[in-house]
Amino acid sequence: MRIDTAFAYLSAAEEHPTGHFSGHVLLLVYYGMIILVALVLVIGTAVLVVSRLKRSGVLHGEGDRLLETASRRGMILPAEVVGLEAVKTQKLELRAFKKSRGRSGDPQPMRKAYHNLQDSRVSYKPTVRVMLDGKKRELEYFRFVSDRELRLREGQTVRICIDPKAPDAFVIVGDHAAYRYLNKIVR
């Protein structure tokens, strides 16, 4: 429908309202569409913010429940930080570690992508020493941790959530950003 035809139609509707849509109805439809689009934008933004907060570890209710389960199963162990590999944050790369999945033994890669931040912050990749099956083992953490996320120093004792049957995958308690991987450790 051409615009001049639409205006002629609306003008005719004002002069002879019977049999024509009123201009008020079209105005209500127009405002209704604006309100609908605004609602979709608000809801979409809220969903994105919540999912981002969950991914970053700010909202970690499920992680806390998994830690409680791990504690009951004896999967929370003390460990000593014996090394901190430092790197400037903007030089971080994609890192991964493998965790056996169930009885099938198929490895499940767990990845953490690091953002190329343009500041001079330093992140650390801790190595911890833990007692497993009567033997001391040194395990390297699967990700670099910013000093803004978790403050660590050599010689510090931390608690880790680890599956003694698959000790290469563990999460440091307090590293909220890594809590999303707890479901791979605590099944």
Which spans have pLDDT < 50 for at least 5 consecutive residues? 99-118
- Residues in helices, as a percent range: 25-40%
Shape, per Cα inertia axes: elongated
Major beta sheet summary = 6 strands, antiparallel
Secondary-structure element order, N to C: HHHEEEEEEEEH
The whole-number mean of residue pLDDT values reads 76
Distance between the termini: 61 Å
SS element count, helices: 4
- The share of residues in extended strands comes to 25-35%
In total, the number of strands is 8
Rg on CA atoms, Å: 28 Å
Q: What structural class should be given to the helix and strand makeup?
A: alpha+beta
Can you put this structure into words, describing what you see?
It is built from four helices and eight strands, in the order αααββββββββα. With 187 residues, it is α+β, with helices and mostly antiparallel strands. The strands form two sheets. Strands 1, 4, 5, 6, 7 and 8 form a six-stranded antiparallel sheet that branches. Strands 2-3 form a two-stranded antiparallel sheet. The model is unreliable at 99-118 (pLDDT under 50).
Describe the structure in brief.
By secondary structure, the protein is an alpha+beta fold. The protein contains 4 helices and 8 strands.
